[in-house]
Amino acid sequence: MPNSDTKAPRRTGFLRSFILWLLIGVVVLWALGALILVAARWIDPPTTAVHIERRLQAWVRHTPYRERYKFIPLSQISADLQHAVIAAEDANFYQHHGFDWHQMQIAAEDDLEGDRTRGASTITQQLVKNLFFGTGRSILRKGAEATLVPVAEFVLGKQRILEIYLNVVEWGPGIYGAEAASRYYDETAARNIGREQGARLAAILPAPLKRRPERMNNYSAIILERMGQMGW
Description:
By secondary structure, the protein is mainly alpha-helical. The chain is built from 9 helices and 3 strands. It has helices at residues 4-39, 49-61, 79-89, 101-113, 123-133, 139-168, 178-185, 195-203, 217-229; strands at 68-69, 170-172, 175-176.
């Protein structure tokens, strides 16, 4: 009969090796993500995890898919559109360092009361999610995202974070970025978007595959009010 005393060390050794290689793999993936963020300081992302996810979904479902995506400098996106997105998605964008702890506390309290109306993810968190993790939700994804958010804040800075986010965020079926959204919905360049147009475009960001700017009367009015309160 095999000696059970010799089997135990082998199992322990295998488990230790497995855990070690798993940790090495996690560290390598994290380092790769961090390097991509460093590169993004100077190089415009050619695609994102969300873009790839939508292409795969269309391929699997055998549905037509046309991608509209054009990266433009922040200076070519109207200030009104920039302000509308910040007011709608992350009012404390210029005050926090990647995480809005106050909004997270409010969201947690709303969850307990069953009355949650908006998320607590900052623009930086959303950018990291768009670039690396797609639209899926899980505790593991949230944990990985949380480790890359400080890197994005440190290496990119607020203006570059906003520039990349406004260029890669999903604004409708196959529509990515402010320029594509402006031309698709308003038939004009992003530099020409005014306050009301910007508020309507910002209003569809939480559910871009379901919402349309022309139907966002109530929420766009709330965004315009927030913009006014913020001095915009």
